[in-house]
Amino acid sequence: MNRSEIAEVCYEAHRVYCSKLGEELPPWGTFPYRDRVARSVDLCLGVPSSHPRDQSPELVRDVVNGWFEVKPAGLPTYPSVPRSLLTLADRRKIALFVGTTWALASAQ
């Protein structure tokens, strides 16, 4: 899979998980910040560890915020915060993104 395909799968997994939390995100085809998700794939794979705790603060912020530059009304927005203060749901978002990215990238 190429970088864009990995980004699409990661985003859709993220979107489905968020829907279980009551956070509705647009499908990949209409999501305006696809390039930011692809950049997150690069950030994730640029770290020699696949463990979520080793990821950069920028990746953590983007995943938790759903890659929006300006989030739609009703969706929570998080500043860069220490990982210890992230909710369990947010830590799971990060783990899902990182795990999916590494699984798809390493299966090539």
- Count of DSSP strands: 0
The ordered string of helix (H) and strand (E) elements is HHHH
- Return Rg in Å: 13 Å
Helix percent band: 40-55%
Largest sheet: none
- Calculate the mean pLDDT score and round it: 84
Helix count, per DSSP? 4
Global outline: globular
Secondary structural class:
mainly alpha
Distance between the termini: 7 Å
Spans of at least 5 consecutive residues with low confidence: none
Q: How many structurally independent domains?
A: 1
Description:
- The chain has 108 residues and is an all-alpha fold.
- The protein has one domain.
- It has four helices and no strands.
- It has helices at 3-20, 34-45, 57-64, 88-106.
- Helix 1 (3-20) packs across helix 2 (34-45), helix 1 runs antiparallel to helix 4 and helix 3 crosses helix 4.
Task: Summarize the structure in short.
By secondary structure, the protein is mainly alpha-helical. It is built from four helices and no strands.
Helices and strands, with pairings:
Elements: H1 3-20, H2 34-45, H3 57-64, H4 88-106
Helix pairs in contact: 1-2, 1-4, 2-3, 3-4
Keywords summarizing the entry:
108 residues, globular
